[in-house]
Amino acid sequence: MDRCDADMVNPQGNGEDDMGGLTRRMALTGVAGAMMAGAALAGVMVDMAEGYADVPGGKVYWKSFTPRGASGKPLLTLHGGPGAAHNYLLPLKALADSRPVIFYDQLGCGKADAPQDESIYTIQRSVDELDAVRAALKLDEFILYGHSWGSMLAIEYLCQGRGHGIDTVIIGGALASVPQAAAGQQRLIDAMGKAYATQLHGLEKAGRMDSPEYGALVQKFYDRHVLRVAPDADAQASFDALAKSIAYRVMNGPNEFYITGIIKDWDRRADLGKITQNMLITTGEYDEVTLDCHTTIRHGVSGPAKLEIFKGCSHMTMCEKPTLYVAALRRFLATAA
């Protein structure tokens, strides 16, 4: 593995790396909002607000955590999937001791509307949705965070020249090309043994992807490369959202590595030079999005980019090592934003 341009984050005894099963199935023009009572976060009083924003195709749910008296730029998060909802990213609310942190459920999942018209679930509509959310919440200047599919959305947004007011970007489990990521996932499948790969692909070819046998094989991959600890309530909420998300089915496909949806040919590698923002790229040692995807972004963007690899982690590093992950983001933000 090429680590010449990356920092390996190697936790020692932080108690967050116990193995556990991943119970994931294959699977405002006007802002309506409410302010909740303040709560203390690292000694700072933080107000939580939530509401809905009008976007192309319907309404999406948002939730924000805003510290009283702090003046750091807001951090807007883009969840993965598509269709995973914001819940698994909630460890990042720890950053709300110094800046507003904002989450939202994209159309088709979680608490957002889920129109049944499959034709509306496109990459371009998602980009337009992001514009609508930032306009509704009056985010003129902010930090953009994207994980997995959220990293794709962030890259697409910036490549379309919509990054005004954004000078800092954080992406994790990141890819600039679905074909590149899919090829990496197949290498990971092959590395799990010939018998495993043969059985998995045999069931796919036989059209038995809804069988218990196939589900168990997919789960084995997820336990190794998606989440290597038992999911907490927030992570489980995202898995549950993903399992019933129309956005995931239409845009991605039946599972993480059998990608048949509309994103399957998406590739922005040739356009990465359009991205000039200061960037942090994060990944886990065992991430289902392989290291070459991350180094491609690192070397392709025009702006400064730092890559951090989290030892012992996979795709959902913020759930596997939340304290370590938040600390790394905090260090980066202290110098970048």
Task: Tell me the layout of helices and strands.
Layout: E1 6-9, E2 32-35, E3 39-41, E4 44-55, E5 58-67, E6 75-78, E7 101-105, H1 123-136, E8 143-147, H2 149-159, E9 168-172, H3 178-191, H4 194-205, H5 212-225, H6 233-243, H7 246-251, E10 278-284, H8 291-300, E11 305-310, H9 317-320, H10 322-336
Helix pairs in contact: 1-2, 4-5
Structure overview:
The chain is α/β, with parallel strands linked by helices and 337 residues long. The protein has one domain (6-336): Alpha/Beta hydrolase fold, catalytic domain (Rossmann fold), CATH 3.40.50.1820. It has helices spanning 123-136, 149-159, 178-191, 194-205, 212-225, 233-243, 246-251, 291-300, 317-320, 322-336; strands at 6-9, 32-35, 39-41, 44-55, 58-67, 75-78, 101-105, 143-147, 168-172, 278-284, 305-310. Strands 1, 2, 3, 4, 5, 6, 7, 8, 9, 10 and 11 form an 11-stranded mixed β-sheet that branches. Helix 1 (123-136) crosses helix 2 (149-159) and helix 4 (194-205) crosses helix 5.
